[in-house]
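We both want to read discrete structure tokens more fluently, so let's practise on a single case. Once you have written the record down, we can walk along the chain together.
***
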Amino acid sequence: MNRPETLREIDILLRDCLTLSLATVDDDGQPHAANLQYAIDDQLRLIFLSNPASAHSLHIARNHQIAATVYAEVRSPTEIHGVQLHGRCAALDDQAKREAALAVFADRYPFIQADDAIRARVDAETVYRITPTWLRLIDNRKGFGWKAEIGL
């Protein structure tokens, strides 16, 4: 599979799914995983919101390196398909970048705009952006253990 086709398939899958499992590491080297809803921008960066006091947010503040998985929910091993990624994650402190990322997030989850209480809660959260540096597309529908990798 060539790079543009793989990137297109990754983009489609990331837009179809809603939850990522984010892996971070604490100061003692203990791994931590958190499931988060996310949005994806036009540069294949993933955006999520979180409380800056949460464990994964504290880990990200100290170490921007993360790993994550996104996968479609299926019932059969022959249907497993998803994306594994490594990248850098950071809070968006710049107001213009934060607002642009929030617009992408709100576009994906329109219920945010429809409810003032939810919008106020969203506005109070920290906005994070993951910039992938490596991606692996896994798709058992193409053959058990099928995968394609891309370094960015």
Summary: The chain has five helices and eight strands. Residues 3-32+54-92+127-151 form a domain with the Pnp Oxidase; Chain A fold (CATH 2.30.110.10).
